[in-house]
Design goal:
The structure holds 2 protein chains of 2 kinds. Helix content of chain A is 77%, strand content 1%. By secondary structure, chain A is mostly helical. The longest helix of chain B is centred in the last third of the chain and has 16 residues. Chain B is α/β, with parallel strands linked by helices. The relative contact order of chain B is 0.19. Classes of the chains: A mainly alpha, B alpha/beta.
């Protein structure tokens, strides 16, 4: 329990030490960590690799921007509508995607999200196509102006911590144990009386919900949403962050999100082909620590303290 | 006559094109122990897989307390009261011992709770917070049995519980099964260890290449050396 608290305290102290650029970067990391953590529910605890999770981030963001810009609703009304709408969509998508597991599941999630991506490009009257929806203002909870980097960061941090805590509780609950059981031995779980499909479907919806939460934060941060947020590249980046950080661990998606965004931001300032660098880093991680950075470092640390010991 | 707990009635089962069970019939009365014996490949595990619903019989019926279940899914059959301790144990290696048990809990008005299971297997209580994958083979077998008991099964299927265990541990497993029998648990025991099976069984069914070669009370087998030699090998 000590480590998570220490991380939260450090994250809360960050704006005292860092400038606006880094505060904004930290906001993006927290948002991406929520997104990655929701992928981790499926990949790390359910054994279901998805390549379509950007769908939930993107649709929640689009819904929110559409309702704000075109229907001029208020944020307090929009947020629940966007979350409910996206979660319902996850329910329907789950019915389709969970017809299969493994590679079939991967392809179905990919196909579903590609449909949305294509729609976002083509349905110009709603999405403004390739221009994206712009002009969104950030919400002002309790009248606090969130256009400054610091208040927005705290807003994101509070929601991010809550989101990750809720996901951690989910996987450590008795239901989470059944989920991990279906990951390791689905047949055994059915012989113990469980409807494996139902367990996966509930998890799929829950992961979709938290993906939607990350999408709201995402659109508040950028005040803008473009079809690229629904793209395969975005889904894949989330998946890679989970794998690099360590799937099936609490800290893995957070560390993975930090790695991806730090690399993106630092490297892109110096190197034109920063995508290549990102690729090399992933190869490096997967070769050296196939289980991910968090379990990998833990293993090295234990070995070191054992040899000292 | 005692209540029929489990019955196979003319079951034909196939893996793809290969015909594994040929009209297999036997029944288990409530509170009894039936030993299902036979050489490797005789179809013992296939029988178990058919009962739990992993494999649907092509023909024939499987009844649990008189109710046909051969068309139902494994989770539904399990909730009808079938508990399976699978061959090779198959505990959830990355779940803790306690999680393995809690996950398996079905009330069904039965007496088995976490406390009672821990009382039966004190070793598991000591190790409840450990990942099940870190247990020894014998402990994993205990956990597999304990996990099945947590479901409060009306019929317990044990698929080769002595496989790969040291003799001392086998004796312990035997004692546990004997205790369950005394408590009135209906059991199907699949075994290669014939002594162990004979020490526990009321009834014996011998399978040979997917057919029932013998079915009857234990006394008729124990004394019939020809039968044993022919179908089970010398022991």
């Amino acid at each position: 329990m000590k480590t998570p608290l220490a991380v939260i305290v450090l994250a809360a102290l960050l704006p005292l030490l860092a400038g606006e650029y880094y505060i904004n970067l930290a906001s993006q990391i927290v948002i991406f960590a929520v997104f990655a953590a929701s992928i981790n529910l499926l990949l790390g605890y359910g054994g279901l690799a998805t390549l379509g999770h950007a769908a939930y981030l993107g649709v929640a963001a689009y819904l929110s921007a559409f309702l704000y810009l075109k229907l001029q609703l208020a944020h307090w009304a929009i947020a629940p509508l966007a979350l409910i709408g996206t979660t319902l969509m996850a329910g329907v998508f789950g019915l389709v995607a969970l017809r299969a597991t493994g590679l079939g599941f991967l392809m179905l999630t990919l196909a579903l999200s590609q449909v949305l991506w294509g729609t976002a490009y083509r349905w110009v009257s709603v999405t403004d196509g390739d221009n994206g929806l712009r002009g969104l203002a950030r919400p002002m909870p309790f009248g606090i102006n969130m256009n400054e980097a610091m208040p927005f960061y705290y807003f994101v941090l509070v929601i991010g911590v809550f989101a990750i805590w809720m996901m951690a509780r989910f996987v450590s609950s008795p239901f989470g144990a059944t989920l991990r059981g279906t990951r390791d031995q689905p047949r055994r779980m059915s012989a113990l009386g469980y409807d494996v499909w139902l367990i996966r479907w509930i998890t799929f919806i829950y992961a979709g919900f938290w993906g939607a939460v990350s999408g709201l934060l995402f659109v508040y941060y950028h005040k803008y949403i473009h079809p690229v947020s629904l793209s395969l590249a975005n889904s894949a980046e989330g998946l890679l962050a989970v794998i690099a950080g360590g799937s099936g661990t609490l800290a893995g998606p957070i560390v993975g999100a930090a790695i991806v965004l730090l690399l993106k931001n630092w490297a892109s300032a110096y190197i034109e082909r920063w995508n290549m660098l990102l690729g090399f880093v992933f190869v490096f991680i997967v070769v050296l620590m196939p289980e991910g950075v968090v379990p990998g470092v833990k293993r090295l640390w234990q070995r070191r303290s054992a040899s000292r010991g | 006559m005692a209540t029929e707990a489990l019955a196979l009635d003319g079951v034909d089962a196939l893996y793809g094109e290969s015909h594994v069970l040929h009209g297999v019939s036997f029944s288990l009365a409530e509170g009894r122990v039936l030993a299902l014996l036979g050489r490797n490949g005789a179809g013992k595990t296939t029988c178990m897989n058919t009962v739990i619903g992993f494999l649907r019989p092509r023909n024939g019926a499987v009844r649990v307390f008189g109710e046909p279940v051969q068309r139902l899914a494994p989770d539904v059959i399990s909730r009808k009261g079938i508990g399976l301790v699978p061959q090779g144990r198959r505990v959830f290696a990355r779940l803790t011992v306690k999680e393995n048990l809690v996950v398996a809990h079905q009330k069904r008005g039965g007496a088995w709770t976490l406390e009672r299971v821990f009382e039966l297997f004190p070793r598991l209580k000591e190790r409840q917070a450990q990942d099940a994958g870190s247990l020894s083979g014998g402990e994993q077998q205990m956990l597999a049995i304990a996990r099945a008991l947590m479901g409060n099964p009306r019929v317990l299927l044990l698929d080769e519980p002595s496989e790969g265990l040291a003799p001392l541990i086998v004796a312990e497993v035997g004692k546990t099964i004997a205790r369950l029998k005394r408590e009135g648990q209906s059991i199907v025991l699949v075994e290669q260890n014939i002594q162990l099976a004979f020490s526990l069984a009321d009834e014996v069914v011998i399978l040979n290449t997917g057919r029932v070669a013998f079915s009857g009370p234990l006394d008729q087998v124990r004394t019939n050396e020809a039968l044993i030699t022919q179908h089970l090998g010398v022991f």
